[in-house]
User: Fold this.
Amino acid sequence: MTTTDAISKPDAAPPARRLWSGVKALPIAYVGTILLLVCAALLRPNLLQPFLLLLILRQTAPLAIAVIGQSLCIRILSLDLSFGGVAMAVSYIVTSGMLPYPAPVLLLLSVLFGVAVGATNAYFIAIRKASSVMVTLAMVLILGGVVTALSQFRAQGDAPEILRYIGQTRIGVVPVAVLVWFAVLIPMALFMRYSVFGRYVDAIGSNPRAAGTTGIPHVKVVFVTHIMSSLFAVLSAFLLIGFVGFGSATIGVDLALNSLAAVILGGVTFGSGRGGMLGPTVAAFMLMFCFNLLTSFGLGEPGKQMAQGAIIALAAIAYAAGDRRR
Assistant:
């Protein structure tokens, strides 16, 4: 080989270095999930039984659906912290009996309520240029206060039969909730990858000003994104209510923070959709598996809270590291 050939042909990186580079490029959720599975295999192998893994997947479904909405908001440089308020309100609508309508009508009213919440959030964020954090946090406080006040006059009751069926039954060995989750996730992933709307979202996240000058309807995209996010919050609430079997004034209170952590650990950061839909989905499973692993060690709710704090801190570090790389 001549000297010229040696200069013109780049040296191939050693396989170990290429492998390490590929691992570093993965979202944290993939590595974290592998480490948790290895830990369970060594210390709690029962958690890896197919029946228990399917149960954990069923527990993951509500969070994973909420994660879809959160990832959409973050990709357009916004945020949605109103999941908990939406879940509490939906729980009251469908279980309190205050509205004397059959279950299908209550579910439809819940969907319309989600559209109204998303449109309200989007109005203040896109039109009034308010902070998405402040707007959606205010929405949580308002909805939570309304539900708490109404609960003093009429308590929440049992979930409708259709929600209990979705949340608690199986088709064969697969929980219906898991089937609903994938029936939402797969079309949504394809839609965001191949649709014009998905390209609009990526363009706005990359450079909002440049996207505006090219004629992309920024305001409409923000409205659609936040409405979709609230609708995913409603669907997530349906699964939670069905899984528990009754309504609660505290249902879904940790959806917002857990979904935010899952999105970032899954590789989606503000203005970047690098992790796609799969990364945050893996992160949602990682969180739920971690909580179950801690429970198996007898740590219970305190351990879950400590883990949530540590995971959210890790997500913040991951976001800061990604931001520095950009």
